[in-house]
Design brief:
It is a single chain. With 186 residues, this protein is mainly α. The protein folds into three domains: 47 residues, no CATH class; 66 residues; 44 residues, Rubrerythrin, domain 2. 57% of the residues lie in helices and 6% in strands. It has seven helices and four strands. Strands 1-2 form a two-stranded antiparallel sheet. α1 crosses α4 and α4 packs across α7. The longest helix is centred in the middle third of the chain and has 38 residues. It is flat and about 60 Å long. The structure holds zinc ion. The site of zinc ion has 8 residues, from loops.
């Protein structure tokens, strides 16, 4: 079976017209039959469907797309926590956060990326000091497994609970950061 990045590689190769669907099938069959597993792109080279230059080109594009995919998800996760903490902290109402998230999505559609905090400041809901406060809090929410250093976000757990690391099974204590947040209702 091709891996996720390999599937992306195949899609790019077909999209660019370097290889037909039938030729791709031959490459995947070759991969299944090989005793030593080879990258599907190397097989395309071996069978003469793509040149080394084309291979490099597809590889570069595939890496960029994979990177953008993962950083996009990270940013969204970061923004979700940021919005959640603004509400917890009493800086903003849920409606205001939703409004800012919509505004952010709107900007992104026209090719402008703003951090959620920037949008909130722009709308006059947060001061720069509020943003610093929430970002500082956000940093303290990250905790690590003492055994394998896997990272978790306290937002997803009960404060001070003991949870099992999903990577190695070790016991980890969730920090009590969320406990200590004073909710100053506006
Ligand atoms: Zn662990």
């Amino acid at each position: 079976m091709p891996t996720h990045p390999e599937k992306l590689f195949c899609r790019i190769a077909v999209d660019r017209g370097y290889i037909t669907a039938a030729e791709l099938d031959r490459c995947l069959e070759f991969q299944r039959q090989s005793r030593i597993r080879k990258h599907v792109g190397s097989i395309m080279k071996i069978l003469g469907f793509v040149t080394p230059v084309q291979f490099q080109e597809i590889m570069a594009l595939q890496k960029r797309l994979t990177f953008e995919e993962s950083t996009g998800a990270e940013k969204r996760k970061h923004d979700r926590t940021f919005g959640f903490l603004c509400i917890k902290r009493g800086f903003m109402t849920e409606e205001q956060v939703i409004e800012c998230v919509r505004e952010q999505a709107h900007c992104e559609r026209v090719g402008l990326y703003f951090k959620l905090g920037e949008i909130c400041v722009n709308k006059g809901y947060l001061t720069g000091a509020n943003v610093d406060d929430v970002l500082e809090l956000q940093k303290r929410l990250v905790f690590e497994c003492p055994e394998c250093r896997a990272r978790y976000n306290a937002v997803n757990y009960e404060p001070r609970a003991i949870v099992a690391c999903t990577e190695c099974g070790a016991d980890i204590e969730v920090p009590g950061v969320l406990d200590t947040i004073s909710s100053r209702k506006p």
